[in-house]
Write a structure and sequence with these properties.
Low-confidence stretches: 8-20
Number of helices: 4
Radius of gyration: 20 Å
Largest sheet: 4 strands, antiparallel
Helix content: 40-55%
Mean pLDDT: 79
Structural class: alpha+beta
Strand order of the largest sheet: 1-2-3-4
Strand content: 25-35%
Order of helices and strands: HHHHEEEE
Number of strands: 4
């Protein structure tokens, strides 16, 4: 009888510890997206890249450095060029994109704690027009830190 009680208590404790870990990871993912949002709102490209999967961010930084080396353009100027290419608009100022808000609705953490999906409502102003879209941010955990690995508008 005592073994059954101990077994049940162990199972209950394990369930609570898994739930607690998932809750902590969920809060860390929300914090990551908040920090990313703040960097984007400050148009701080280098800081924003620190929240992105280093395997992706390093390639973006390398490409920007190479292009900047040959064109003598700053990161801000390269950002404007990239935005113009993606939107087919001409921009003179990084303020064409303002007020990013990432409202996290739900975070689903994988059982092994190595990845998560954050379901969000993203609000942003582009050329003075407010846009509201549902988006999912895929996040990965390695080197004891969470990173954004991708995002998709749904």
């Amino acid at each position: 009888m005592a073994k059954k009680i101990v077994s049940v208590l162990l199972v209950v404790c394990m369930m609570f510890s898994l739930t607690a870990c998932s809750l902590i990871d969920s809060m860390k993912v929300k914090s990551l997206l908040g920090d990313f949002q703040e960097a984007c709102n400050l148009t701080d490209i280098n800081t924003a890249l620190t929240y992105i999967d280093p395997n992706v961010a390093d390639k973006i930084k390398l490409a920007a450095d190479i292009v900047g080396m040959f064109t003598n353009k700053t990161d801000e100027e390269l950002f404007l060029d990239l935005a113009a290419l993606l939107t087919r608009e001409s921009f003179n100022d990084v303020n064409f994109f303002t007020t990013l808000n990432i409202d996290v609705q739900e975070v689903i953490v994988a059982e092994d704690g190595s990845s998560a999906i954050a379901k969000t409502i993203v609000t942003y102003d582009l050329l003075g027009e407010q846009n509201i879209k549902e988006a999912e941010f895929s996040c990965i955990y390695y080197a004891e830190q969470w990173y954004i690995s991708s995002f998709t508008f749904v």
